[in-house]
Design a protein that fits this description.
Layout lengths: L5 E8 L6 H18 L5 H28 L3 E2 L10 E5 L2 H6 L6 E9 L3 H10 L1 E3 L2 E7 L2 H5 L2 E6 H11 L5 H6 L7
Parallel strand pairs: 1-4, 2-5
Antiparallel strand pairs: 1-3, 4-7, 5-6, 6-7
Length: about 180
């Protein structure tokens, strides 16, 4: 197997799924972080900025918790998918099962970088929508778990290869046999 066979896909962060209010708070936080990095400001000013950052984080966290309680499917902001967010993935049994073309960009898989766990919980439980398609949580390897990343797959693509990936088993079959042991 050659390691020169790659598939290209998007990698986005949890902020790509924010509502307008959440995005507003997020942008305020980014400005405050930038202001705090200024080396010429005095300590009393930094302490003041830190207090404001703490309040803004609390407000953002409150908004994220409210959305989680609504149990709504989040939507991926199309502007989050740009050339800077394209990563490569080695060809594997997953990419072959999905029929992904080598050296081409796919939207069947999307990698999520987790910064806010409320958004991640939303996405794992309810998936997300992009261009009229629903995406569902697929997996996270041990390395991805350590680096707070997860793989999401287009639901329509997954349904075509689910039996192949699950060796013919269904979730019901697994649960009826007592479930699985997580690592």
């Amino acid at each position: 197997m050659g390691l020169n066979k790659l598939v290209y896909l998007y990698s986005v962060a949890t902020d790509a799924f924010y509502t307008e209010q959440e995005q507003y708070r997020h942008k305020r936080l980014l400005k405050l972080y930038k202001a705090r990095q200024n080396k010429s400001i005095q300590d009393y000013r930094k302490k003041s900025i830190n207090r404001v950052i703490k309040r803004e984080k609390e407000k953002l966290s409150k908004l994220l918790n409210q959305h989680l309680e609504k149990k709504e499917t989040r939507k991926l902001n199309p502007s989050a998918l740009n050339d800077r967010n394209v990563i490569s993935l080695f060809e594997s049994s997953l990419t072959r099962a999905l029929g992904l073309k080598t050296n081409e960009l796919t939207q069947d898989l999307i990698i999520l970088n987790v910064f806010f766990f409320q958004v991640f919980e939303d996405l794992v439980k309810y998936g997300f929508e992009y261009e009229g398609e629903k995406y569902i949580f697929l997996t996270a390897s041990a390395g991805q778990i350590r680096t707070k990343r997860a793989v999401f797959v287009k639901e329509s693509a997954y349904s075509k290869v689910a039996k192949r990936l699950m060796c013919g088993l269904t979730v019901e079959d697994i649960n009826n046999a007592g479930g699985i042991n997580t690592n």
